[in-house]
Design goal:
Layout lengths: L2 E11 L17 E10 L4 E5 L21 H12 L6 H15 L3 H4 L6 E7 L6 H14 L3 E5 L5 H15 L4 E5 L16 H11 L6 E3 L7 H10 L4 E4 L6 H9 L5 E2 L9 H13 L3 E2 L7 H14 L5 E4 L8 H4 L14 E3 L13
Parallel strand pairs: 4-5, 4-11, 5-6, 6-7, 7-8, 8-9, 9-10
Antiparallel strand pairs: 1-2, 2-3, 4-12
Helix pairs in contact: 1-2, 4-5, 9-10
């Protein structure tokens, strides 16, 4: 089997309601997503999505005529062109989709087949009034969710801390409450320095009163010692990070430095499916957890779901869902014929069709 074509297409929808300003300062802009289609001489086509694939066009020739089933050489090929272009991991997802179709198996089975469904947590992308968040949390309980992640801005922590308190008061132990400080990386153009370690230590001590399931991205990735100190000072609270780390050595530095309880590498935005699998297996041997970041679109979520279920990720899988912030299943999953949604028991099933099991609407 040989690759005959790689087609990259852009798709978008008008946002209704508009995207929350935390994600896009221009709420009129369409929400865009890139789809990669890898075509073969045997009529099998694989699909992937996640990052934009901007800058990939000059490198297509390196993949044409090669074997899509030879995954390790393909991963090395993607890594070789990344230095000259960008993060092209949606291409790897499309290749794994082909492998699964040829094998007649879901990709999750090829990655280990530990689970066929995973518990999810609702991931909120915006800071809202405490009462709104209390009401939102009650809705999640009714829908069967087992956990929720609340955003807290370390530069202005009071609204976020108040929301954490309101959620805990509203639902008690019926939801595991996770907290995201978003300190590890920056959106384009954001040159503000992170809140220093002393301030984060104080904030984490305050949040500990509400028994969070984990504290996410409390510090920049490079501060291995700071992460390790937070873990030591807050026994019983997991420290999670790594969602956008595309440098395997940097991930290993955090893991080897005993700085994290949970690694969150996104397979289509950061480190790829194969490399993330190796990382997840390494974490398991260290009695730590892996659960991926999943913020791209429904097709990117599916790729992360397959890897996570294959290796037995946990304790939850991230499920972006925040209608108050403009993030709805219809927006996230517009590439798919049907939105993804968890079962009444709060678990998201892995599609059992061969490959990624994605039915595209575009």
């Amino acid at each position: 089997m040989k690759i005959t074509a790689i087609r990259v297409t852009e798709h978008g929808i008008e946002l209704d309601p508009p995207m929350h300003a935390a994600w896009d300062p221009d709420p009129r802009r369409r929400f865009a997503a890139t789809v990669v289609r890898v075509e073969t001489d045997e009529g099998v086509t694989g699909v992937g999505s996640g990052d934009t694939m901007a800058g990939f066009a000059p490198h297509v020739e390196h993949f044409l005529g090669t074997d899509p089933l030879a995954i390790e050489p393909q991963v090395r090929r993607i890594e070789s062109v990344a230095f000259h272009g960008g993060r092209f991991w949606p291409l790897e997802a499309a290749l794994w989709d082909i492998v699964g179709q040829v094998a007649g198996l879901p990709v999750s089975v090829l990655f280990g087949g530990v689970a066929d469904r995973l518990p999810v947590y609702a991931s909120w992308c915006s800071v809202q009034a405490p009462q709104r968040r209390a009401d939102d949390a009650a809705e999640l309980v009714e829908r069967g969710f087992r956990a929720v992640k609340v955003r807290v801005d370390p530069r202005d922590p009071e609204p976020g801390v108040a929301s954490v308190a309101a959620v805990r008061a509203a639902v008690g132990e019926r939801l595991d409450v996770l907290v995201d400080l978003n300190q590890a990386w920056r959106m384009p153009g954001d040159t503000r320095p992170p809140v220093e370690l002393a301030g984060i230590r104080r904030l984490v001590r305050r949040l500990a009163e509400y028994a969070p399931g984990w504290i996410e991205e409390p510090l920049p990735y490079a501060d291995v010692a700071g992460h390790r100190q937070l873990r030591a000072e807050n026994p019983g609270i997991r420290i999670a990070s790594g969602e956008m780390l595309d440098d395997a050595a940097a991930v290993r530095a955090l893991v080897d430095g005993d700085a994290l309880d949970v690694v969150q590498t996104d397979v289509v935005l950061a480190l790829g499916m194969s490399r993330t699998r190796h990382l997840a297996e390494s974490m398991a041997r260290r009695h730590r957890r892996f659960t991926p970041h999943t913020w791209s679109n429904g097709l990117g979520l599916l790729a992360n779901l397959h890897v996570a279920a294959g290796v037995g990720a946990g304790p939850y899988l991230e499920f972006p869902y925040d209608p108050a912030g403009g993030w709805t299943p219809g927006r996230r999953d517009f590439l798919l014929t049907e939105p993804l949604w968890p079962a009444p028991d709060g678990t998201l099933a892995v599609p059992q069709a061969p490959g990624l099991g994605a039915a595209l609407a575009v």
